[in-house]
Hints:
Ribosomal protein S3 C-terminal domain, 4 domains, 10 helices, 302 residues, alpha+beta, 4-stranded antiparallel β-sheet, 52% helix, rod-shaped
Amino acid sequence: MSAIKNVMKNNFRNMELNEFLSSSLSEAGYGGAEVQKTPIGTKITLFVIRPGLVIGRKGSGIRDLTARLEQQFNLENAQVSVTEVTKPELNPNIMANRIAQLIERGTAFRRASLWTINTIMGAGALGVEITISGKLRGERAHFEKHTAGIIPKSGKFAEEVVRNSTNSMLTKMGLVGIKLKISIKEQVHRDFDLEPEAQPKSETEIPAEPEAASEKIHTETTDQNVPAESEIKTEQTETTDQNVPAESEIKTEQTETTDQNVPAESEIKTEITETKENTETVENKDVVDNEVKEIAVNKSET
């Protein structure tokens, strides 16, 4: 078998596998599968919203699924792993399946398409395009296209950013097809990033301190300005001690004043003796004067 036929066979098998998984795992929210060939066997990774429904109780569901895949698609030693989809709104397979379920339940196709557009754009997509074709209103088939945001149409940029999905459902009027395109913002690669130029710092510039440092400085200044209670008490006691003298000092001052005001006994005795001597001298002078007068009188009489 040539390489071209081998590739075509593998692609056809993957398409049949995708259809089988989407029909059997529709309740679990099937979002796609990846098939890889390894030396041990074939590794299949399933992306679903609710992995518990696929695994089953004690792994019974995933064992049955692997057995069916090995029988129907002739897979050697199939290894099936299940991963949960983090953002189902950005998965086109899941959202196309939701539109199909809404239209099958009787919801108007325009309401269903507008609701999906709002949910996808609300999840952060770059753009959305929904195309619904078939017998929508009457016997004559037509299509309607609803878009929002930016959808690249060609080039490598479109291959990297845009994800496609198709789905179909059978209604009373006939077969209706859905084609969904979602452009994902996270897949956009920038050619270059602009960085702001570093401005030279002037000499007068003061580096900004963080808020924590400023708070510390503020608390330190407040602590310096406002003394502690113990310091206030000690200062008050010192002032009271300085203003109010001790009892011993008061007693000594009183004794000094009393000593200054009241003279000693020896001083009083000396003063008394001095006054006595002065009086005796005065009396002696008076006696001498009297004698002199008498002598003078006697002379005059003679």
